[in-house]
Each structure stands twice: as C-alpha cells, then as structure tokens.
Specification:
Structural class: alpha/beta
Number of domains: 3
Strand order of the largest sheet: 3-4-1-5
Shape: globular
Order of helices and strands: EHEHHHHHHHHEEEEEEHHHEHHEEH
Helix content: 40-55%
Radius of gyration: 22 Å
C-alpha cells in the first residue's frame, strides 16, 4: 500500500498534469509488454506492437530497455525526469544529460550486491555511445508503441481531466482528491490517499506540490519516483475499457446514423459514451477544434447532446435522443 497524507497547504497545491507524459507512457507500456496484467484491455495492443517491433528489427533494443525498465518495484528515476513534460525530445534530452554520479547510483539499485551487465555498466559510466543508443531506443520505441495510439490516449486523458475538473469545481481541493477514490483499490479518507502498491510506502510531501499524471498504460497501482528528494509525482491509471484499440480505428463503414446527420457528427456522438471536452473530441476525431465546435453546436440544437461549461472547457454529454439516433430506435 502507498499512503499520501496532505496538510491544508499541500492539498491546496495539488496539481493535475495537463496531458500525456511521453516518458511515463514509455515506462508503463514497457511494463505491459513484460506481463499479462489487464489482458482483455491490452492484449490486442501487445500483439500489434510486438509484431511492429519485430518488423522494425527493434526487439533487441527493446529487450535492452526492459533491463532498465523492469516490471518491478523499482526502476531508475532519471528515466522519467520533470513533471509531465509533453515534449518527447526535451524529455529524452534531460535523460541523456543525467549526471554520471546519478546514473551510477540509480542503475546500481537494479542489481544490489551484483555487478551490472556490461551494457548497463557503460551506461552507468556515462559513456557517450551508450547514452546515444539509449536515446535512439527510447525514440524508436515510442514511435512504434505509443505514438500510433496517441488519439486514444489523448481522448482518455481529456475525459479524465474533465472528470477531475468537475470534482474540483464542485468540491474544491478536497473534491479533487476524493475523485481519485473511485479508482479500483484506491481510497480517500479525509486528507489521506491510499492506493495499491507492491510494498508498504508513505510518500511524504513536506509542503511540496504533488503532480498527478494520467497514465494510459498504468494498471491499478500508481507509479512514483523512488527518490523522495525529487519533486513528487504520482502516475495514476486511466483504465481504458476492452476494445479501445478497435474503437480508435477509423471506420471504413459509416455508422448507420451518418445517413441522417453526417459521418463526422455520427462518429462524434459515438465517442460520447462518457462526457468529453471539445478538445478531447477534436483530438480523437483528428478534426480542428473550430470544426468540432460547429458539429457540437448543430448536435446540441438538434437535442442530441447537451453542453456545460467547466472552467475554460466545455463538457459535452450525449442525450437520450442522441442515444436513440445512434441505435436506430427512431422510426
């Protein structure tokens, strides 16, 4: 179990990341490739990515990455620098500029009491060729295992962010914290958050800001930095539902409702199984925000969805009439 206790100041400073953190997604997705957790959700992705890595000749490089990203209690903190930096290249540059003493200390924790494997020993020494190979492997893996799925990932992040924003607007900082108590195995008791975790641990904030980062490939237990002197980060699961991979594919056949309201508007309605923002819809549909806004206006005027402003965003929900149009229930 992991426990995070908040005082009033720490609770008021609780922060949600704005979007996807590429390096945390690399870490969590590598963990998913090493085990069969949440098989119904991730097995189609595992099969697809495994085949893509093999075609690209990247399996040896990915096996090397798994040595430093083991699906275990610990992996080195230097591999996930910063707090939810959305820029992959900037993040990889930070990884490669890690001081040599930190490389050696953190990599040594992977093999306590044993010598490091040869490849990792060169990396721990700050060897420039080893660092360049690490940077190349991170970028190439991301391009095949994460980047093709960004529309689905961003849609999940947008939906989660809307849910957290609604909780914060309704219940303030306490409401935001309590909203994480709905995750499986997570509990919120006043100002204390408890989550599943491989070992018993208390994350001490000491007056600092905790950044909560959404993790598409994170399952049940959060991910956190091992070194408590670093700015605290907690990566929480988004819990995509089975079939997300197929639903994220562009459909060659238009939905039946498309004959009535048009393909883009029918696809937009299909996405509203749960509330989403205009930005989240635009990302999922690969449309300009202005175009998405026009579609939502037409659907709202027709009574097929309702919209409500929350802070700087607009949250859309499908109505019962919209559901009926999708299901072909109208005669």
């Amino acid at each position: 179990m992991l426990r995070v206790e908040f005082n009033g100041r720490e609770l008021a400073r609780l922060r949600m990341a704005q979007g996807v953190d590429p390096l945390w997604e690399i870490a969590a997705s590598l963990h998913r490739l090493q085990n069969r957790r949440a098989a119904l959700v991730y097995d189609p992705w595992r099969r697809e990515v495994g085949a893509a890595l093999e075609r690209a000749g990247l399996l040896p490089a990915v096996r090397g990455l798994m040595l430093i990203f083991p699906a275990a209690t610990y992996f080195p903190d230097f591999l996930t620098p910063g707090c939810a930096d959305p820029d992959l290249d900037a993040g990889v540059d930070k990884v490669l500029s890690t001081p040599r003493h930190r490389l050696a200390a953190e990599l040594s924790r992977l093999y306590p009491g044993s010598p490091l494997p040869h490849g990792l020993r060169r990396l721990a020494e700050g060897d420039l060729d080893a660092l360049r190979r690490l940077g190349s492997a991170l970028r190439r893996y991301y391009a095949l295992a994460v980047a093709p799925y960004l529309p689905a990932i961003r849609a999940e992040v947008a939906a989660d962010r809307a849910q957290r924003a609604e909780a914060a607007l309704t219940g303030g900082a306490e409401g935001l914290l309590a909203s994480y108590g709905v995750l499986p195995g997570w509990t919120c008791d006043g100002t204390a958050l408890r989550t599943p975790y491989p070992v018993r641990r208390e994350l001490r904030l000491r007056g600092r800001t905790l950044t909560l980062v959404p993790g598409f490939f994170c399952v049940r237990s959060p991910l956190a930095l091992a070194d408590e002197e670093l700015p605290p980060v907690l990566v929480h699961p988004l819990s995509p539902t089975p079939g997300w991979l197929e639903r994220s594919r562009p459909s060659e056949a238009a939905p039946p409702a498309a004959q009535l309201i048009g393909t883009s508007r029918a696809q937009l309605l299909q996405l509203l199984d749960r509330p989403m923002t205009t930005t989240g819809l635009a990302t999922a549909l690969a449309l300009a925000p202005s175009t998405t806004s026009r579609h939502t206006s037409v659907l709202r005027e027709a009574g097929l969805l309702i919209s409500r402003r929350q802070g700087g965003s607009v949250l859309h929900r499908r109505t019962a009439l919209g559901e009926a149009v999708l299901e072909g229930a109208l005669r």
